[in-house]
Design a protein that fits this description.
Oligomer: single chain
Strand content: under 5%
Radius of gyration: 19 Å
Shape: globular
Largest sheet: none
Helix content: over 70%
CATH superfamily: ABC transporter involved in vitamin B12 uptake, BtuC
Organism: Domibacillus iocasae
Distance between the termini: 40 Å
Transmembrane segments: 14-34, 39-58, 98-121, 141-159, 228-248, 254-271
Number of domains: 1
Subcellular location: Cell membrane; Membrane
Family: Belongs to the ABC-3 integral membrane protein family.
Order of helices and strands: HHHHHHHHHHHHHH
Membrane topology: Multi-pass membrane protein
Low-confidence stretches: none
Number of helices: 14
Structural class: mainly alpha
């Protein structure tokens, strides 16, 4: 396996991208779970699918777009979707949870239309749905590195603000924290992470990587920082184990990564129960 990684560029791209995603997805996931916004990852993943489908359709019909990576269309749609969710949350102030199913439904609907226009499913779209070890390009890897750098820098400098905003939004506003700006930056970063994670985990399973490691970490952690560190650890184990399994068994990595995450979660729950 190690020899194959050094030999084939696509394996280098997949494992490096996976290792990075295994850090940034659970990292943001810890804040998402605490803020009870877990379903927002599902909504944005479906919006991103619309962007991917739109990119594939435009690449088929307009020669000028043929060389453009559909991932960038997905990122644009995901960021746009995150902004629309926030707008809808302001419109439905007393029923803010409505924003998520509205955006999820819209994302699915637009995605289905573009998939139909692009003559149905093809190999490229299938790899975005469930992830693919061989489909990760060097451009995808560079996108993952760029987004991860922005995420790590933002979390490092805004950790205090994100922490307070996650646990007590009213106190954050009263203490002078620019809550709206911080939340908007966080939601945009979440959208970008979801978009760049698709090649590895797949659009239908990316939300699991942001929540399952956090769910496992919350069972054993004794504080929020420890929850973050354990979430990243469980995320890394899930991604690496899932990618190795997918390589040897010739399976979609999204499924193997998520199943590994579930096994870790079950193991933690059983261990905690036995310990108590």
């Amino acid at each position: 396996m190690i020899e194959a990684i050094f030999t084939y560029e696509f394996l280098q791209n997949a494992f490096l991208s996976g290792a990075i995603i295994g850090v940034i997805a659970p990292l943001l996931g810890a804040f998402i779970v605490v803020r009870r916004l877990s379903l927002i990852a599902d909504a944005l993943s479906h919006v991103t699918l619309s962007g991917i489908a739109a990119g594939l359709f435009l690449g088929q019909t307009i020669p000028a777009f043929a060389a453009v990576n559909p991932l960038y269309f997905g990122m644009a749609f995901s960021v746009g979707g995150s902004l629309l969710i926030e707008r809808l949350r302001n419109v439905y102030k007393h029923y803010q949870e409505l924003a998520i199913p509205i955006m999820m439904s819209g994302g699915i609907g637009i995605g289905v239309i573009f998939i139909s226009l692009a003559d149905g499913f093809n190999t490229d779209l299938f790899s975005y749905l469930f992830g693919s070890v061989s489909a990760v390009s060097r451009g995808d890897l560079y996108a993952v590195i760029g987004i991860s750098a922005i995420v790590l820098i933002t979390v490092y400098f805004l950790y205090k603000e994100l922490f307070i905003l996650s646990f007590d939004e009213e106190y954050a506003k009263a203490s002078g924290i620019p809550a709206k700006a911080v939340h908007m930056a966080f939601i945009i970063l979440t959208a970008l992470v979801i978009a760049v994670s698709m090649r590895i985990v797949g659009v239908l399973l990316v939300s699991a990587l942001m929540t399952l490691p956090v769910a496992a970490a919350m069972r054993v952690a004794k504080g929020f920082k420890q929850t973050i560190w354990l979430s990243v650890l469980f995320g890394e184990i899930s991604v690496i184990t899932g990618l190795i399994s997918a390589f040897y068994l010739d399976l979609a990595p999204g499924g193997t990564i998520v199943v590994t995450s579930i096994l870790i979660l079950l193991g933690v729950i059983i261990w905690k129960k036995e310990k108590n």
